[in-house]
Structure formats: structure tokens, C-alpha cells
Amino acid sequence: MSRTVAACQLALADLDVEANLSAVESRVRELSEDVAVALFPEYALTGFVADGRAADVALARDGPEIDRVARLARDSGTALVVGFVERAADGDAEEETLYNATAYVAPGGTRAFYRKRHLWEGERELLEAGTERVVVDTPVGSAGILTCYDLNFVEESAAFTREGVDALFVVGAWPGAYSENWTLLLRARALDGVRWVVGAGRTGRRDLPGARSVTYAGRSLVARPDGGVHAALDRREDDLVAELDSETLAAQRDLVGIYDGESRTPSRRPDDE
């Protein structure tokens, strides 16, 4: 089984779902057959702006757009990790709630959804924070999902360390002005949990009328279980392809001994279909 991942670094079209879906499809079709998991940036399908326009492009997790991603995963044989603004009718609420969501969609039909737990700036005024951590079983081992600003919170890393996950999948849209922090935190989360970390970052620029302009960092990165940089991109649109070697992970864990004798909390994982 292939243990190769791709972090697909994109410049998104904010508020244009069709353009973003087409870009994701194009990039996946260009990947080599040995790529088992492909990650795309935060809000990859919808983009984001902190006003009512985000609600206009928000997607339901059981809607046709996610079905289209599922068909792409099936046809390509590649598990896909994509971010989007999610709309959901929660409980008895009369109005729909919006979330910063990330979908993991496997070729066999398994789907899992993570809602960002730590919201950043304008997100707090528009979105609801998620409450659950999500672990998925993937071709490269068990993986926890994080979104961008989640990286700053050590308790998230500690929780996934107790789970004993083999990797963290991180989708981001990190501002270019703080790109060094993105790189630092990806490496730190690899080191403190002794695991692989794959970060897929947004690049390009958001320049919409009525919204603050942002230049994004890009700098997608794969960090080794010892915190070193295994592979990295600059700001260009490109695919970062790397193998997450299981022997490298096992050797580092044997060296550090972080999991010796520790109990692990059972994961909440989607059932395979």
C-alpha cells in the first residue's frame, strides 16, 4: 500500500465554488497514481470572507459538491482532504449554522468531517466553533485533522498524542506576514507528538471588494517525526509529494520512548463502507 501524500497548494477563487471544484479536480487528475492521500487548503471549495457572502456559498456535507469530491476520490483512487464553509441545521435551530469544515473522503466511500475548534478573527463573528476532534484511518496510518489556527493550541496536539496518531493532516490559509509561525508550528506539532505532519497551505491573494486584502503564505510542508523538514514549497502553486515512511516513524518513537506504557483514548472514527 502506498504511503505517499500530496499537499496541493492552491490560490483559491473566493466565493466561486465551481472554479475551486474544477481546480481541485484538475490537480487530482495530474497527480501520480501512487499518491494515496491529497490535501487541499482551508476553505478550498468555497474560499472565505467574514460577511454574509460566505453564507451564500456555504455547502451542506451531504450536498452535490461533496458528492462530486467523493466521485473524484473514487475515480482517482486517492483519499481527499478539502476545506469549505459548511451550512448545517443543528437541532431545533430555526436558522442554519455555519462552520469552518474539513472533509476527509476516501475512495471506498468513507467520509469524515472536522469542524475547526479554534476560530480566528472574523470567523468568530460569523461561524460556530466545532466541539469534536476527528481521527481517520488512512492509507498512511491513523491521522488527526487540524485547521490552521488550531496549530497554536498545545492541548490539541496533546489530545492527538494520547490517541497515538501516525500523522496530522493540517489545512491552512496562513497570512504571508506570519509564514514563519506556520512553518514553526507544523514542525513543533510533529516533534511534540512524534508523528508525521502534513500541512497544505493556501497561496495567492484574496482581493475582494468590501473585504480586507490578504496575501497568503503558501509554504506547504511535510514535517518529520523528529521535527525536521522532510519536504517544503515556497509560494508557487504546486504539489508537494512525499512518502510518510513507517520505519522512520517507528525508529523515532523507539528513540524517544514517548508511547512506552501509555494508555490511549479510543478514537471516534467513521466506519468503512
TrEMBL record:
GO molecular function: hydrolase activity
Keywords for the protein's UniProt record, in alphabetical order: Hydrolase
Residues of the CN hydrolase domain: 3-246
CDD domains xrefs: nitrilase
Transmembrane regions listed in the UniProt entry: none
Protein name (database record): Carbon-nitrogen hydrolase family protein
Organism: Halobellus rarus
